[in-house]
Write a structure and sequence with these properties.
homodimer; 360 residues; alpha/beta; Jelly Rolls; Rossmann fold; 2 domains; 9 helices; 15 strands; 31% helix; elongated; GxDLY (chains A, B); SGNH_hydro (chains A, B); signal (chains A, B)
Chain lengths: 360, 360
């Protein structure tokens, strides 16, 4: 009698653990997607290939990386897994594999987005990880950020066999409110520790608006095809954080026609100009320091010219307001860490809020 | 005549640029070293092989990693290069190559340590990089942190041929004032963006004292050979941040004899006990959350037992004081980013200061 009881208990335990561990997968394309400028031919890329046609090759390539894109879903599963394939293996001296190729999971809890865990990255291109397990089985809304400096060729989200997984009924990101950020590696998210710590992602969670990451590492050089594209992206505000990449001469030549065009096409949409962060190694390398100074002088000139011409809804954020003054906000003098991105988010948010508040 | 003038100018310019680019190397062993518990048989490791004999194998291996060790030197060179060899290539999903295998350079300027730049890491084991160039040629004191999660088999620091490079005449780290930190991966520096952002390194710069990094990733489990070793390390204060690794049962069993022994051997040296940071994924994973809670309950019991026995110079730092409450301080729920380490440094410093102030 006692033996039968024990055997029954063991069998029940096995069955329960099987029920927990038996996983079904939902293709992420069936769920909700945020952080996209527009729909694209290949779903996990940032700019449609046809629309990217006139852009520089470097931008075309970087537009295939999934920075800023996230999947929203609702599930009551006690476990969340993911299988995702990377188009290629990436090595970056100044980024963690989890940031350039991993997944980053948040949950909407008591009116706020809270970090849950990550989909960590093993060497190779086929990734398959438990993100979190042993949760309670209440229905929760999750946001899963995609890799910052790599692409995703396919993504499936795994939950318990008997759990539900769906698009959220009340999405906690309002895709009708859109902040479009065009910029360099700093926008794309180098060197956040994980995808959710790039500053547009931080601000997406803080505001509940949809922040669109159009950061193109080393390649945000204000070519006209980019202005033309930006003018077609639905936006409540443009943030132009594209001063780190072009030379002072390029800024002098390109920034006025670029911004002028964007403003003429979309006169009602405010534009926030952000000076380049002061490269911290430029406080020692006199050539670097001089270049940064001249970059900011050139964008300042363009800003003042536009103001003089009567453009009202243009805002300006100076370098000394961006990342604090302890010189500890970067990994390499150039790229922000989570400490730097938190400061950057603190600096950008009030200016964007002001721009939105003053919008007619 | 004009032609000769031009030729002379060109020749002079070539010679000058040659003088700038022509580099001589100083072996780092001829300079000053900080962050070392004691001298060791192999100079870039943390614990002497003979002294490590009774320690667990994992600790022995990790003691060969150079976390917390830094080279101090003075030079008037306009350029600083480094050639360093790594014993092996490392892959860590949650650390940048620059952190686990790179170099991190600071300069003492106007009474403060200021970040200069890094020795970034290329794939492979033989590294050779310009760290900074185009500086002014004033005499400066530098500190170069070694890799956090790798070793160094040799290191040479390159300066201009005509520059000086020496041990600093007035070292800005006081090696007679020593804080010895024993702990887990959090102490060793996962997941700082670079070596200087591990919290013992941050506090070394803030205090000017020598902070000794005895962080052993995953392996700070309070075995008695570690207590015996710690008791022989010259210290003004011990910080025991070793609760993340042992199980609640191990803490219950080991923490009292470990701390009791250390205190009996060194009754005048204050001990700061640090609870484990609350694993942020443990706010979701109920098993993880429960374990963390029990770990901290067990160390608390030991602390209270020692206080009851009349041990006065023992201090206690609670988990909710360590890394803020926005849940954004980690890369993976477990390991701190620069944001987390900055908060951790803010939390640990006042307790250590209090301990030092109350020391008889």
């Amino acid at each position: 009698m006692y033996k039968i009881f024990i055997v029954t208990i063991v069998l029940l335990a096995v069955q329960l653990s099987y029920a927990q561990d038996s996983i079904k997968y939902a293709d992420a394309t069936t769920l909700m997607m945020v952080g996209k400028a527009k729909t694209t031919d290949s779903i996990y890329q940032r700019i449609d290939s046809v629309e990217a046609k006139e852009m520089p090759q470097a931008v075309k390539n970087l537009a295939k990386q999934s920075a800023g894109i996230a999947i929203l879903f609702e599930t009551n599963s006690r476990i969340i897994r993911a299988k995702w394939d990377l188009p290629k293996e990436v090595y970056l001296h100044n980024m963690t594999p989890d940031a350039h190729s991993g997944l980053d999971l948040y949950c909407f809890k008591a009116g706020k987005w809270q970090f849950v865990s990550i989909g960590r990255v093993a060497p190779g291109i086929n990734q398959n990880q438990i993100i979190v397990q042993n949760m309670d089985s209440s229905l929760k809304q999750f946001m899963l950020y995609l890799p910052l400096y790599n692409g995703v060729s396919q993504l499936q989200i795994g939950v318990q066999q008997n759990a539900t997984i769906n698009k959220p009924t009340k999405p906690a990101v309002n895709t009708a409110r859109r902040i479009v950020v065009y910029g360099s590696s700093v926008v794309q998210g180098a060197s956040a520790s994980r995808a959710g710590m790039a500053y547009p992602a931080i601000l997406q969670r803080r505001t509940g608006f949809d922040w669109i990451n159009l950061g193109f590492s080393g390649s945000a050089k204000m070519e006209m095809p980019l202005a033309k594209y930006l003018a077609t992206v639905p936006a409540d505000c443009y943030v132009l954080d594209c001063i780190p990449n072009p030379s002072p001469e390029e800024i002098s030549e390109r920034s006025y026609p670029f911004i002028k065009y964007l403003h003429e096409q979309q006169p009602a949409i405010p534009i926030v100009l952000v000076e380049t962060i002061f490269r911290q190694n430029g406080l020692w390398d006199q050539q670097v320091g001089n270049t940064v100074k001249r970059q900011n002088e050139e964008i300042r000139k363009t800003y003042e010219r536009l103001k003089k011409e009567g453009v009202k809804n243009i805002y300006y954020l100076e370098t000394d307001k961006l990342i604090g003054n302890d010189h500890e906000a970067t990994i390499d003098g150039i790229h922000l860490t989570d400490l730097g991105f938190t400061r950057m988010a603190d600096a950008v948010l009030p200016v964007v809020k002001k721009a939105l508040a003053e919008k007619k």
